[in-house]
């Protein structure tokens, strides 16, 4: 019997969300031949995970483990889950955020392709506030589907070396849609310095660099919820959290340039994105410093970046930014 670990980092302020997510796992179809261990990492959530799951239905071949940790963010929580999954010697690993819902055939579809040639599976998803699915909304992914889709097929099976470059250019794989073979994990873990943005993107790149075939399922298999979402909140440039968002995204592309062997065209794209995110970070850092909020400079001084030269680069970028894109 194949063994699947489902890793759920948990931090929510609204009751009932985790219970709904767990019920979507318990309601999966065609899983009689799969052993499932649900690993919930309670990241000091205001809503207690154990209380959320009181009287939850018990199903044969499905067990639930709850781990409590000091509040450390989703990357640390997922890494704790990966450590347990490794110790259990599972065959496959899936992720599910605690406000998301799997469609009842999500696991059976993933297992079908992972039991063939694929090592990494992901699917389309639907956000609670969007009329269309993620793949339909994203023009890059739309073009990609038109390029690679085989007529009448609902999946795209593509060589990992090709998809690796595509994934650098746009973010295809939302966390709750992903299922992969543990054999490609090889000790990899989420980067815990990227606390607001980019830790998942970097992890998927590392995983895909370890495999041969990637399966992209065009059928939506996940409904994304409206619980606590740090990344979405950090997109608001009116909050200081947006500084960390742009710093993390700058750090993401910097790490891409250092951790992977890239051809010249991809290097050029990564350098462009790195400069763009650093420009946004610089503008926001000085903007908030003028309000006596120095979070941007604190990020610099706590990083491995050269302090003096980066400081002057921030100041230069700020003035360049407001000249090219005047303050409103």
What's the number of domains? Answer: 2
CATH superfamily of the largest domain: Spore Coat Polysaccharide Biosynthesis Protein SpsA, Chain A
CATH architecture of the largest domain: Alpha-Beta Complex
Tell me roughly what share of residues is in helical segments: 40-55%
**Could you tell me how far the N terminus lies from the C terminus, measured between alpha carbons in angstroms?**
61 Å
- Class computed from helices, strands and strand pairing: alpha/beta
- CATH class of the largest domain equals Alpha Beta
**Number of E-type strands:** 9
CATH topology of the largest domain: Spore Coat Polysaccharide Biosynthesis Protein SpsA, Chain A
Instruction: Based on Cα principal axes, name the global outline.
Output: globular
Enumerate the spans where pLDDT stays under 50 for 5 or more consecutive residues.
none
Largest sheet: 9 strands, mixed
Strand percentage: 15-25%
Q: N-to-C SSE series? A: EHEHEHEEHEHHEHEHEHHHHH
CA radius of gyration is 21 Å
The oligomerization state is single chain
Report the total helices. Answer: 13
Mean pLDDT: 92
Brief overview, please?
With 328 residues, this protein is α/β, with parallel strands linked by helices.
Give a verbal description of the structure.
The chain has 2 domains: 2-231, Spore Coat Polysaccharide Biosynthesis Protein SpsA, Chain A; 234-324. Helix 11 (264-289) crosses helix 13. It has helices spanning 17-26, 49-52, 74-87, 106-114, 134-137, 139-148, 160-169, 199-208, 230-233, 241-259, 264-289, 295-301, 307-324, and strands spanning 2-10, 34-42, 62-68, 92-95, 101-102, 120-127, 155-159, 179-181, 213-224. Strands 1, 2, 3, 4, 5, 6, 7, 8 and 9 form a 9-stranded mixed β-sheet that branches. Helix 1 (17-26) links the parallel strand 1 (2-10) and strand 2 (34-42). By secondary structure, it is an alpha/beta fold. The chain is 44% helix and 18% strand.
């Amino acid at each position: 019997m194949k063994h699947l670990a489902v890793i759920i980092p948990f931090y929510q302020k609204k009751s009932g969300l985790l219970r709904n997510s767990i019920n979507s796992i318990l309601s999966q179809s065609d899983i009689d031949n799969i052993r499932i261990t649900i690993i919930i990492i309670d990241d000091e959530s205001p809503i207690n995970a154990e209380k959320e799951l009181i009287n939850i239905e018990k199903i044969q071949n499905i067990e639930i483990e709850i781990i409590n940790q000091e509040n450390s963010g989703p990357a640390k929580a997922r890494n704790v889950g990966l450590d347990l999954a490794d110790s259990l010697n599972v065959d496959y690993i899936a992720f599910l955020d605690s406000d998301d819902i799997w469609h009842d055939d999500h696991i059976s579809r993933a297992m079908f392709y992972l039991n063939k040639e694929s090592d990494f599976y992901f699917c389309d998803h639907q956000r609670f506030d969007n009329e269309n699915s993620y793949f339909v909304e994203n023009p890059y992914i739309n073009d990609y589907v038109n390029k690679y889709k085989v007529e009448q097929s609902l999946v795209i099976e593509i060589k990992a070396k090709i998809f690796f470059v595509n994934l650098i250019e746009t973010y295809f794989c939302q966390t709750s849609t992903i299922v992969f073979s543990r054999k490609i994990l090889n000790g990899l873990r989420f980067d815990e310095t990227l606390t607001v943005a980019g830790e998942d993107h970097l992890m998927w790149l590392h995983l895909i660099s370890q495999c041969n075939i990637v399966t992209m399922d065009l059928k939506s298999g996940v409904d994304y919820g409206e619980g606590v979402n740090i990344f979405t909140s950090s997109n608001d440039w009116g909050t200081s959290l947006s500084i960390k968002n742009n710093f993390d995204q700058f750090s993401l592309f910097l790490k891409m340039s250092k951790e992977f062997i890239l051809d010249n065209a991809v290097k050029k794209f990564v350098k462009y994105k790195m400069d763009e995110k650093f420009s946004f970070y610089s503008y926001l850092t000085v903007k908030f410093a003028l309000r006596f909020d120095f979070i941007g400079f604190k990020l610099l001084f706590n990083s491995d970046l050269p302090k003096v030269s980066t400081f002057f680069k921030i100041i230069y970028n700020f003035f360049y930014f407001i000249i090219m894109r005047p303050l409103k």
